[in-house]
Amino acid sequence: LLFVVKMTFDFNSKSFEDDLMIIGSYSFIFLAPPVFITLFFKNAPYGRYSRNGWGFIVNAKLAWLTQEIPSLLVAAFLIFSSERPFYRHFSEPGSLLCTCFLVHYSYRSIYFPLMMRGSKGTPISVWMMSFAFCLINGFLQGWNLSKHAPTVWRFHHFVGLALWLFGWINVVVADRILRNLRKPGEIGVYRVPQGGLFRYVSAANYCSEVIEWSGFAIACASFPSTAFALFTFCNLAPRAIEHHKYYLQKIEDYPKDRKAFIPFLW
What we know:
It is a single chain. With 266 residues, the protein is mainly α. Helices cover 65% and strands 2% of the residues. It contains 8 helices and 2 strands, in the order ααβααβαααα. Strands 1-2 form a two-stranded antiparallel sheet.
């Protein structure tokens, strides 16, 4: 695919890896709309929507750990092996962006699965798709940050990093709220989440993650980060709508003024 595209288009890039980064980013852009549309008609078969026909089931904790950790390991390798490793230039915006990405995936791939409580397993086919996405995205963001990270502060860096921090904090808060809804040993039990952004939306965890990566894209102002943010939105928005419908159908006293995904709007 790389060589076919290279023969068709001239990216004016400096290296083979830059070509891969551009093609990978385009793949996220092109895949985002069909994923967005498909998930409105067919739920991703894991968690509360788990069903037969998608392969054997992988333990939830093991699935989350192994599918997410490629983003951390690949990005960390590229960033730490860079000619300008971020820890030597910590006053630059690029260094903080590297830190943001590594902090999120340290949390998501290590702390989050270890703290999971009562989650259903993940079909192997879903695990494979998630693993592939995280592997590719780890390269895209890691290569971009290791070679093209900004060195001079601009206004959009402050705006984007503030949004990223707000989103990441609320991701952690939403995960804690959802985790504490279940008692130790309970599996597949769903109750009404309260607090944090759950006061406004049914899928506060998804809303927060989109805010987080939108801020990251604003701060990076790069093609890979924008493609990642777009794909994240298209992947999570339909799931948020289904969560909202699920709560309304299954829980009689569910708050009627709560939106699904975007506070006060949607």
